Amino acid sequence: MGDRIAGPHLKGLRVMNYKFLLHTLISISVSVSISVSWSAEDPLKDSLKESLKKTPVETRTQWLKEAKVFDDSFIKKHLSENASEFSLSEFIKKTCGSSFPYSFSEKENVPWPTVQCTYEQSKRVLGGSTNKFLCNFKEKNKSGEDRVKTRKVKYLAFTGIKNSELVPTLLAGYGAKLMGLPTDLYCPAKIDCENCSSNMPYEFGKGQAAPSADTHTFPDAMVEFSPSLLTVEPNIPRSNPRRAHGVKIEDAFEVFENDSQLVDREAWLLWLNFITESDPIPSNQKLVCRDAELNSQSEIVCKDPMIFTTDYGQSFHQRFQFQNWKKVPALRLAANGQCITGMDLDFFKQIRGWKETKTWLGRPISRSAQQKFLSRIKLITDTQWLDIARFANIQRLYKVSPQEFLTAIRERISAIEKLDCQ
């Protein structure tokens, strides 16, 4: 499985050193290929990562064809047989670490702890529209050793909660994770940023402003925890307007291996409609490799390619417009009796000003995909949905109770279940 990138794309390695390293590794290994460990820092890993950002278009298309949308390893580990016993609160505590001492004992809102970090001046402009900056956190690695890790912090600006992506990111991110859809996870907190450039580090410098001697506090913020995956980008100049920095949704339905894979992708699309993902631009989905190998011909092989969602910030009807979200169906019946996705051109005309439709808007959803989606989303228990809502503080920030949110979730699931898809 997986096409390969030839050795000339490996920049930054001296040829003699590389050949020596390759010869040494082959000589001590029974295998003819080298599996790279992505948890450690080393020149070979960094060169491979850079090489994957310049993947030939044909090779990337092949990997997209093979790519999965569901991470079955998480489902098998936690939810296949003991879904009701899986503790989301313990999973969150393990994900975020001891620096984020959450207590799930309160009924409506999980208090967000105060966490300290030291401002890190970004070497590049931090893109997107969400307020963000980089900060260094003192943590422990998996071995319990102390380390300093630079992480992205997204924060609630003075523009108010209605313009913030905090709550929808937390709701959709942990919901997707429990369905087995790979995504970045975030840990909310009150952030005390030492040496922060200002109290608005994104507005003034896009994260590139120099540090100050001051400490600035961000009462409502969240810290990004991304898995160690390898991003695959096409070898097209960034200045080229046709370049897709991520995965276009329509491309996911143009290249695929078999009917089973198509069913999975339709189920994923139904999830995007379930949460009314209002910003489905290509950069919000990435093609990633869980791992990579160098074979004996010094070619890179992408192992376990996946479509990975990086940003759910404008889900639940453009940043958690709760009442509007409930009105948009996730799935509906077309005039010909087919089940089709709920979001259409009129929806995006209203919130995005779109003038032309997309091939995935109003896309038919097969009965198999409908059942696949239902089987996945039903893995999430009422207790887990309530914990997600409490963790996101929707009662405090939006005056929507966790029970109201759960009721809306269940009503949307029921509406999908009642449709007789062909």
Structural class: alpha+beta
What integer is the average pLDDT?
85
User: How many β-strands, per DSSP?
Assistant: 12
Amino-to-carboxy terminus distance: 32 Å
Number of helices: 15
- Tell me about the largest β-sheet: 5 strands, antiparallel
The percentage helix is: 25-40%
**Low-confidence parts, pLDDT < 50 over ≥5 residues?**
6-40
Q: What letter string, H or E per element, gives the SSE order? A: EHEHHHHEEEHEEEHHEEHHEEHHHHH
- The backbone outline, from C-alpha atoms, is globular
- CA-atom Rg in angstroms: 22 Å
**Strand content bin:** 15-25%
Q: Would you write up a description of this structure?
A:
By secondary structure, the protein is of the alpha+beta class. The chain has helices at residues 15-27, 43-52, 57-66, 72-78, 88-96, 166-179, 249-252, 259-274, 315-320, 322-327, 345-352, 367-377, 382-391, 394-398, 402-418, and strands spanning 4-5, 34-35, 114-120, 132-140, 146-155, 185-194, 215-225, 230-232, 285-294, 300-309, 331-333, 339-341. A hairpin with a 5-residue loop joins strand 9 and strand 10. Mean pLDDT is 85; it is low at 6-40. It is built from 15 helices and twelve strands. The strands form three sheets. Strands 1, 2, 8, 9 and 10 form a five-stranded antiparallel β-sheet that branches. A five-stranded mixed barrel has the order 3-4-5-7-6. The chain has a two-stranded antiparallel ribbon with strand order 11-12. The two termini are 32 Å apart.
List keywords for this structure.
422 residues; alpha+beta; 5-stranded antiparallel β-sheet; 5-stranded mixed β-barrel; 15 helices; 12 strands; 35% helix; globular
